[in-house]
């Protein structure tokens, strides 16, 4: 088991609003932007930032869904996350989140789930800028010319150079924020954001530059904008391709294992695991496509738990590694060279087994002989080559 240091920063992700202005069928946090909802995108940003305690504040009755989204976004760091139930107002929701802080937390970031596309860099920059005696907010310069109006009349121009549009996450020293919340709750005053509440308690708040991507999804037009941004991003990122090859010699013990299947009476291949060249070539193709290293690094002799393991174990773990890193598998094509086994009779079965091990992504397997040439042609072993396509889910 890997032991990680306990973080001193916490991020409270408030997601307990109903989303009245968006007018979706579900609370705003659970409305889909693409195949993933607002909250999942927000959490992807949060988990891409430096490790922090993550507290999701969910609408009453939706804690279970929030927990699932948290688990999926956290990957291997689910130990950092928890879900609490929100309140009637945003301020009450933040207060509920504050109650769940761990003892070691010194810096608290409060973040709107509705700012779903906030870059991880903005989260890290806010956390880094918090000081023991002052809070910090990301803010954007105001672009539009502003007017002060009164029932149909423009009464004055407003100097926009004095104004900034506040975003989240907003970061604060923990103890001062807790004390400021206690005062606000006792007085019953509702503030428009955490910075206003913190400033009302007499503390200073500084600002750093925000990001256009950190806009708040409030109206249907905002949701459309988020959808466009995501589809542009995935088109720019495009699919990624990877290649993998593997070779094993005959001479192993027992029956042959190939393409995730056992082949009764066929000579076995030798290897640290079961010698399944097809499964191993697929693993390398997938890891390569995602830029996540190779089979030796994840499953080699340094990982004795995989000694003798069959292909499905390697493939399932590989799919998990990709998923944790934010990749989905498009498809896999693999070909092996060998005089035996006679493959065509079990092709469909093999493809189903490999696909199931990968969580359902399509896998096509073809077989060829080499006209008696080379080591495969001489019947010394089997070689396989795989290519895989993956795409980022972030
Ligand atoms: N929020 C919350 N608890 C509330 C109200 C709001 O946790 N009682 C959260 C929202 O989930 C959102 C953030 O605060 O992530 C900013 O609020 P807003 O954009 O106003 O969201 P909603 O209140 O859900 O939307 P609306 O005001 O349109 O109903
Ligand atoms: Mg609201």
Can you describe what's shown?
Helix 8 (about 275-290) runs parallel beside helix 10 (about 310-325) and helix 10 (about 310-325) packs across helix 11. A 5-stranded mixed beta sheet has the order 3-2-1-4-9, sandwiched between helices. It has a 5-stranded mixed beta sheet with strand order 12-11-15-13-14. A 3-stranded mixed beta sheet has the order 8-5-10. Strand 2, helix 2 and strand 3 form a beta-alpha-beta unit. About 35% of the residues lie in helices and about 30% in strands. The protein has 12 helices and 15 strands. It has helices at about 40-50, 65-75, 90-100, 120-130, 175-185, 195-200, 220-235, 275-290, 295-300, 310-325, 345-355, 375, and strands at about 10-15, 55-60, 80-85, 105-110, 135-140, 145-150, 155-160, 165, 170-175, 205-210, 240-260, 260-270, 325-335, 365-370, 380-390. It is of the alpha/beta class and about 400 residues long. Bound molecules: cytidine-5'-triphosphate and magnesium ion (MG).
- The number of distinct helices, counting runs of at least 4 residues, comes to 12
Largest sheet features: 5 strands, mixed
According to DSSP, the number of beta strands is 15
What separation lies between the terminal Cα atoms? 27 Å
Ions and ligands: cytidine-5'-triphosphate, magnesium ion
Strand order of the largest sheet: 3-2-1-4-9
Shape descriptor: elongated
Sketch the topology as an H/E string, one letter per element.
Answer: EHEHEHEHEEEEEHHEHEEHHHEHEHE
How much of the residues is beta strand, in percent? Answer: 25-35%
Low-confidence stretches: none
Mean pLDDT: 95
């Amino acid at each position: 088991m890997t032991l990680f240091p306990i973080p001193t920063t916490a991020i409270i992700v408030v997601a307990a609003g109903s989303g009245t202005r968006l007018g979706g069928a579900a609370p705003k946090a659970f409305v889909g932007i693409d195949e993933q909802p607002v909250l999942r995108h927000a959490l992807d940003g949060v988990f891409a930032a430096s490790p922090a305690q993550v507290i999701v504040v969910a609408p009453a009755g939706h804690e279970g869904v929030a927990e699932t989204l948290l688990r999926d976004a956290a990957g291997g760091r689910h130990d950092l996350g928890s879900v609490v139930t929100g309140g009637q107002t945003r301020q009450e929701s933040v207060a509920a989140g504050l109650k769940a802080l761990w003892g070691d937390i010194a810096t608290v970031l409060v973040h709107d789930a509705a700012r779903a596309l906030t870059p991880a860099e903005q989260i890290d920059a806010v956390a880094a800028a918090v000081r023991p005696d002052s809070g910090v907010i990301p803010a954007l310069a105001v672009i539009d010319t502003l007017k002060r109006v009164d029932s149909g009349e423009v009464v004055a121009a407003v100097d926009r150079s004095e104004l900034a549009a506040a975003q989240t996450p907003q970061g604060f020293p923990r103890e001062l924020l807790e004390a400021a919340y206690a005062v606000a709750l006792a007085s019953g005053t509702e503030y428009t954001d955490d910075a206003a509440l913190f400033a009302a308690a007499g503390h200073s708040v500084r600002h750093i530059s925000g990001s256009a991507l950190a806009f708040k999804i409030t109206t249907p037009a905002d949701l459309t904008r988020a959808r466009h941004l995501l589809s542009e991003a995935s088109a720019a990122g495009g699919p990624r391709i990877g290649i993998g090859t593997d070779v094993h010699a005959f001479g192993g013990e027992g029956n042959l294992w190939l393409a995730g299947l056992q082949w009764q009476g066929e000579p076995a291949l030798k290897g640290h695991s079961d010698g399944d060249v097809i499964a191993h070539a697929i693993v390398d193709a997938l890891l390569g496509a995602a830029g996540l290293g190779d089979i030796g690094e994840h499953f080699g002799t340094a990982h004795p738990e995989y000694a003798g393991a069959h292909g499905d174990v390697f493939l399932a773990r590989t799919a998990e590694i990709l998923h944790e890193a934010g990749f989905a598998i498009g498809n896999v094509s693999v070909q092996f060279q060998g005089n035996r086994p006679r493959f065509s009779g079990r092709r469909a079965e093999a493809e189903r087994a490999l696909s199931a091990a990968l969580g359902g992504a399509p896998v096509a397997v073809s077989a060829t002989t080499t006209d008696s040439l080379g080591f495969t042609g001489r019947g010394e072993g089997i070689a396989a080559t795989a290519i895989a396509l993956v795409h980022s889910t972030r």
